Amino acid sequence: MKYIIGIGNSDAKYEGTRHNIGFAIVEAIKRPETVKWDLKKNFKAFVAELPGDIWLIRSTMFVNGTDGTISALPPLVPQNYFVVCDDVNMQFGKMRLRASGSAGGHHGLESIIRGLGSEDFPRLRVGIKNENMPQDLTGFVLGLFTGEERKELSTILKKAASVSEAWFLEGFEAAQSRLSQLQSIT
Question: What is the pLDDT of residue 186?
Answer without folding.
Answer: 55
